[in-house]
Design brief:
- 39% of the residues lie in helices and 21% in strands.
- It has helices at residues 3-16, 49-66, 81-91, 132-143, 160-169, 179-188, 197-205, and strands at 20-22, 28-29, 35-36, 38-40, 72-76, 95-98, 111-112, 120-128, 147-156, 173-178.
- Strands 7-6-5-8-9-10 form a six-stranded mixed beta sheet, sandwiched between helices. A two-stranded antiparallel sheet has the order 1-4. Strands 2-3 form a two-stranded antiparallel ribbon.
- Helix 6 (179-188) runs antiparallel to helix 7.
- The longest helix is centred in the first third of the chain and has 18 residues, at 49-66.
């Protein structure tokens, strides 16, 4: 399956199981106070077996294509852990995950699972917005001696801040689907009006500018 077919398939899947909500007329409010027309909960893919199969098989296919030398998959805590585990199983690879902080007991691990210096790692993330937490995961792995080939996510908002962060950190990053694919599919299927697309793209380009709400 080619990347464009995967992009469309996963967008359709996320909308069908309502893992993605689009409410341009009644925006969600982020913890930062920013108004957002979209809410994404990719954890719901785990409770929909057909969608879960699409996601994990697509992750495996894209990792093989984009990161053919991958030796270990590392999930981000907590949403990336299950996807890393299932995809690693399909690919016959070891996996582990990176905690948001080191444990305050036992061995004080932040990286769970065996990781040898020099191993080629791909980080598995469910959703990327501004990319901050994912870059932190990459840095923890690099500090431990891993050769981080890059990151793969199920979906990205494609925000400029996130794109710039990955570029500044020198991290390759690919995603199964993205904000544009979701909103275009949503318009095709009647979830939103076609004339909402430009408003939603305005949000993506600058989330702090709420003028899109009044367009």
């Amino acid at each position: 399956m080619d990347k464009e077919k995967i992009r469309k398939l996963i967008a359709e899947d996320l909308l069908r199981i309502r893992a993605v909500f689009l409410r341009p007329e009644e925006p969600f409010t982020w913890a930062s106070g920013i108004k957002s027309p979209i809410y994404c909960d990719n954890r719901l893919t785990l409770t929909a077996p057909d969608v879960r199969n699409d996601v994990e098989e697509s992750l495996a296919a894209v990792i093989k294509a984009e990161y053919p030398d991958a030796g270990v998959l590392m999930g981000t805590a907590t949403a990336g852990i299950a996807h890393a585990a299932i995809t690693a199983h399909l690919m016959g690879l070891p996996m582990g995950y990176v905690r948001s902080g080191a444990k305050d007991h036992g061995r004080g691990n932040q990286i769970e699972g065996r990781l040898e210096a020099g191993q080629k790692v791909v980080v598995v993330e469910d959703l990327i917005s501004t990319g901050g937490s994912c870059i932190e995961t990459v840095n923890v792995l690099r500090d431990a001696g891993a050769d981080v080939l890059g990151v793969i996510s199920i979906m990205t908002y494609g925000m400029k801040k996130g794109i710039d962060r990955f570029a500044d950190a020198g991290v390759k990053w690919v995603s199964l689907t993205d904000f544009d694919a979701v909103i275009e599919t949503a318009a095709e299927q009647g979830y939103i009006n076609a004339d909402d697309i430009e408003r939603l793209r305005a949000f993506r380009d600058d989330p702090s500018d709420e003028s899109w709400i009044k367009q």
